[in-house]
């Protein structure tokens, strides 16, 4: 991740909470034949020490797991284009893109088959709880033979978390009034994803920087 100190966050609790709330990311490894990636839901366990997930057994990543392998889980959040006109500052401003992303590095390993039911249960329970007041889906609703057959098609995995890095690029290098204008404009923009959330993050998480830090180097 690009080491821009203006936008980096070392707040591990905040970064884990963001990743947990998102619950979906891109898993990447460097395998024998090059880079491999999978887009996966996941469950953070043991206060962030472990991450559980599962993959289809036909996924080529599983062929690389005869032993634990280094991996990167990139968890992307809201993002959006920022027009320099929104700042209402001088003319020496440039376009940029605000975004939030958390990168989690660790050792990816295959878990024994008997761990799969627990992994599936914890993963589904995590997301079903967010659909309240709907009664949560449970595997017990399914025919046992059908459920067993479907489980044979997937494998449980675990990431032992070693490092967490994050970028919260939220116009922190601009004056407070300019950031508020950016937040307002993002709510009405169509260029990006989850723009209402991005607007809220600009309000809630960015801090005004001193005049000394407001320079062009802070744009990327």
Main attributes?
single chain; 220 residues; Pnp Oxidase, Chain A; 5 helices
Structural features, described:
- With 220 residues, this protein is α+β, with helices and mostly antiparallel strands.
- It has a domain of 152 residues: Electron Transport, Fmn-binding Protein, Chain A (Pnp Oxidase, Chain A, Roll), CATH 2.30.110.
- It is 25% helix and 33% strand.
- It contains five helices and eight strands, in the order αββββββααβαβα.
- Strands 1, 2, 3, 4, 5, 6, 7 and 8 form an eight-stranded antiparallel β-sheet that branches.
- Strand 1 and strand 2 form a beta hairpin.
- Helix 4 runs antiparallel to helix 5.
- The C terminus is likely disordered.
Element string (H = helix, E = strand): HEEEEEEHHEHEH
Computed structural class: alpha+beta
Q: Determine the fraction of residues in helical runs and give it as a percent range.
A: 25-40%
**What is the annotated CATH architecture of the domain at 12-111 and 155-206?**
Roll
Shape, please? elongated
Mean pLDDT: 91
Report the count of strand segments. Answer: 8
**Span of the ends, CA to CA:** 11 Å
State the helix count. 5
CATH class descriptor name of the domain at 12-111 and 155-206: Mainly Beta
Work out the radius of gyration.
21 Å
Q: For the report, how would you describe the main beta sheet?
A: 8 strands, antiparallel
CATH homology-level superfamily of the domain at 12-111 and 155-206: Electron Transport, Fmn-binding Protein, Chain A
Strand residue content:
25-35%
The CATH topology of the domain at 12-111 and 155-206 is what? Pnp Oxidase, Chain A
Oligomer: single chain
Q: Return residue spans where pLDDT drops below 50 for at least 5 consecutive residues.
A: 208-218
């Amino acid at each position: 991740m690009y080491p821009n100190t203006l936008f980096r966050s070392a707040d591990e609790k905040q970064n884990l909470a963001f990743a947990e709330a998102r619950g979906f990311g891109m898993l990447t490894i460097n395998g024998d034949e090059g880079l491999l990636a999978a887009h996966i839901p996941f469950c953070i366990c043991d206060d962030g020490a472990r991450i559980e997930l599962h993959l289809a057994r036909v996924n080529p990543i599983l062929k690389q797991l005869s032993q634990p392998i280094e991996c990167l889980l990139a968890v992307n959040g809201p993002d959006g284009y920022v027009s320099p006109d929104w700042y209402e500052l001088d003319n020496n401003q440039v376009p940029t893109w605000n975004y939030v992303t958390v990168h989690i590095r660790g050792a990816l390993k295959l878990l024994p088959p008997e761990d799969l039911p627990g992994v599936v249960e914890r993963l589904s329970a995590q997301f079903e709880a967010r659909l309240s007041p709907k009664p949560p889906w449970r595997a017990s609703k399914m025919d046992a033979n059908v459920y067993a057959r479907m489980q044979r098609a997937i494998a449980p995995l675990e990431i032992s978390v070693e490092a967490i890095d994050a970028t919260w690029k939220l116009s922190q290098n601009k004056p407070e009034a300019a950031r508020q204008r950016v937040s307002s404009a993002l709510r009405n923009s169509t260029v990006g994803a989850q723009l209402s959330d991005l607007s809220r993050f600009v309000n809630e998480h960015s801090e005004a920087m001193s005049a000394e830090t407001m320079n062009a180097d802070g744009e990327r």
